[in-house]
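Bug report

Summary: structure tokens for RNA polymerase subunit sigma-24 differ between web form and batch submission.
Environment: batch mode, default settings.
Steps: 1) Submit the sequence below via batch. 2) Compare with the web form result.

Sequence submitted:
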Amino acid sequence: MTGDGNTSTFHDPQLLARLVEGAQCGDALAMDELLGVLAPYVGRICGPVALQDGADAAQETLIAVFRSIRQLKEPAALFGWVRAIAVREALKFARRRRRQPTVSMEGEEVPASGEIHLASDIADALHRLTPEHRAVLMLRHAEGLSEQEVSELLEIPVGTVRSRLFRARRSFRSAWG
């Protein structure tokens, strides 16, 4: 599993499998606990890609998981399956936002006082990237996926992943500097 979950459930494959199986059988408590485990993970994926729409993309992801949990054949594949849904939803929101005029970022979570400048610089640099570039950066560097895994997840050739990574890194550095 990728990431560092906020609960011990995240690290217990047997308990996680029981929650998935319970949710698939209609157990509302199992589904609620499963969504609670997945919410922070989904947020970490959607936020960097969908930016100010990250919370909405995360919510849509969790709704999709809720509606489609019965389609998951192997509980051990849960996080990869959820990652694919989260990236798809985050890209959908980011592309929609790109077609709209820029809107104020009111209501976003405010970082701790010592981190405000750094967070602002990072957010500014990320805003300057296309959603596709944010997605490959996040999947490669935040999620730790290989270029091949990113290629499979986004359903694009490895060469495209490499060129997007190159451009995204260059654009990020340029915006950062």
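Above is the batch result. After comparison, the two runs are identical; trailing whitespace caused the diff. DSSP finds eight helices and no strands in the chain. Helices lie at 13-24, 28-50, 54-68, 78-98, 116-127, 131-142, 147-154, 158-176.
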